[in-house]
């Protein structure tokens, strides 16, 4: 027994040593694929050119599970994580994340102080937002000869547009979109979802396409499903669809109606090995120039007002990026912001109901 | 029903090849009489087991016809032939008790329950295993398993039983005991048995007739005594029993006898069985117990000088290796009788034998 | 020498050549051997303990562990200890709650408390975090102050939930794992119908595993038979084909099934091209239960074939020949003589495939769609997404008990000695 104790001590020491070795670099964790590429191009490269600490880029699949595991075991190796708003808030509440002092953020290029330059709601106690992203739905234009879908109601109209639908496997954004397709105004969506009747109404709407739905989980799946002809239209993250159009010339189109937008934020796990450099990187990567530059690699919107006018052409495809931003006026008419507070309260119950509904 | 005097089994011009290039069985003709105990004896690869498998139906004949009771069974499935079979490793079904094993052939024949019980009991009694019906085969000794296998092959009263080296796995003592038991069962039931073995003493002990196989051909088909005393060719002479072989050349023919000039020795008078014409090579076969040491002058036409190389005391006889005619592997069995000649290693002796005991045969070089 | 012989003859203790007791001598020799043997197994034993037993024990502990409320709301816990659960508790409980909220906000533990309570009572999270923000400025009477902050503080259900969660250990995760909950009077009742899920999923997991085992048996049995009976040069080739999936990554195999089975995949295209089905009649073969069963059957097939093969190889062909010679037709011979002897292989293969199936995760996640999800997918969901590790542990605990039960049942019915794994 004492021997196995000794062994486990040795093993633990080995892990600590390995951790100490990697503490030399700044470990930045994001979602992989085209999104991480945009960050490498827009943030990491200029950061290194400026003489910043070497970066160790890692991918993950979202959620707080790894952060929680690292913080609770006391062996934190991640310095900076790109998370969704609800996770930034929840992680902060649960003491997994470090509060960030907003005074480190530089003013906008036009001189606006940082606190006024960032869009409302994009700065939280523990998080600094970098982009606005959106769950939209998209379709393959070559599959439609006549009328094309233009509204969320069309997505649910199997008579008008018969064919398979793709939806993310989860309650979030599906329930909201279902209510809006059923005619609920964006402003009333969360009020309605707070009642049993509202939840039932959302599931009833989802029921109408349940039999024709293919469910996806990873962001890379929807463009693939569209390309394979597995679905006629599918919900997706707008950047993924844009990526397929811009870099692979796929004939996909996005429907900007009743979409749900959300934020991605930088957060620092409590106990991160390189807090000072992580904070510097947060300030650097969210300044006006960088915030605008990332939008020339992927169609996610900047969170600084001062960055919006600087958005230009796609870095390689040469497409003008402004009309593809989720925050572009033409796209933003009927958008709903994901309510992190609502989901923090109700995610457990609604996911349980969603899973139960799904299994039936 | 065919005439009871007709053979039960006939192999007519049967050939067998597995690969289309080599014949394992070459043009086999064999009649097996009703009630006969016929043994197929031969070294491994001689074709004897293949013949048995063709008879059982597990291997199709490539050419020719096999008849059972006068009808061709070439195209009859094995389970319709009604032939009992005992396998080398008994092939008792391990998941059934002894009684269930015995009942199996009766059940598949849709026999009534009480009939089955009676027959199983009788079969078990026959092999003296009356109390062992509820046991599993794994709980029996090798000899007991053997008996169960024999009982199972006989329980459905087949006219013909095939046995494929059934005693191979038993130790020597048990094997000899089982030989007698099987022989007695055969005699009391009158069933026809075709038995395959490579053990010549087993073949000689049990059989009415023995078919000696080599190279896909029956070398000799004869009762045991004839096989031993009057081998037809050099292979049989060598394969059955102990044999002194002297190589030489035929120098003269005189009626049934001939003269063979032994290499490095001298002329030997021999009984001509299968020697070629004058001038051709021949081998002489001489059983060790038919040679006399230091015979009285004039008793034998064949007398040679030799030298004792080795003596082995075997109780009832003394095995002497003598160098005769340049052959140093010449064996003489000296009976341990009153007044037998006292030999010592290295001493010079004379050996002699009759013309009839010395058979002039063809030359068999071995495989 | 003769002394020792005499000593033995007197039936006294037997001595070794050097005069020590023979028994001690033997023990000493054996002890050294045992030590060496133990030393050889120790690294593996330690490895298994650290990487296998220890995590399982931790998991089982976590499924009942409930420290959050107990540790972070000590005053409330004490104040509610003697509350009878009727009506709403007295002012002292409210005062304790306010004090705890202030403290928990300061220590940043309020989020954990809120999260824990939210698993039990949906919507409580914001009530707690919201109230905690205001708690510092609250003045007596605290009952009125709390209810003014949020109506829910006046509800009996909230206080009952807090009292129930005050215990450092709880069975509530296990209840949740079988679609049950405590009602307001602490009785165990079924979960609301629109939230029931795990019993269905456990049932489905067993059903899919059974289906996969049966499919593997039906497909694997003839293959194993061929493997055992074909001449060596053919059986070697066949064996390589059986093992080939083993040498390919699980993900590659699973995604290649997607390529084959999807609506516009190879098989559907082929059937449309040959006119078996119409363009509109393309069959949904993936992203449902069928996809899960097909892909898992393919992946798990070797686990059925190998035990079957190793059993069949030991059955000499003479058994079948004996049965035929005894007059049984080939079918009867097979059913009554050959098949019963393969039972240990069938048992081992089926148990292996079944137990592996029960815990399958990646394949159902990729090709299971809606109806092909299994319990592991929900365990992963609670590990990664909802962060309800307690519930994940309880689901895992039930799965573990299920597997142990299966193993026990198998050893009772077939006998573990009768199992042949290869």
Reported by name, the CATH topology of the largest domain in chain B is Rossmann fold
Q: Class of the largest domain in chain A in CATH? A: Alpha Beta
Task: Using the CA coordinates, give the radius of gyration of chain B.
Answer: 25 Å
Order of helices and strands of chain A: HEHEHEHHEHEHHHEHEHEHHEEH
Q: What low-confidence regions of chain A span 5 or more consecutive residues with pLDDT below 50?
A: 1-22
Question: Residue share in helices of chain B?
Answer: 10-25%
How much strand of chain B? 25-35%
Please give the number of β-strands of chain B.
20
- How many helices of chain B? The count is 8
Oligomer: heterotrimer
Helix/strand order of chain B: EEEHEEEHHHEHEHEEHHEEEEEEEEEE
Biggest interface reads:
A-C, 42 and 47 residues
Question: What is the SS-derived class of chain A?
Answer: alpha/beta
Q: State which percent range the strand residues of chain A make up.
A: 15-25%
CATH fold naming of the largest domain in chain A: D-Maltodextrin-Binding Protein, domain 2
Tell me, rounded to a whole number, the average pLDDT of chain A: 89
- What is the CATH-assigned architecture of the largest domain in chain B? 3-Layer(aba) Sandwich
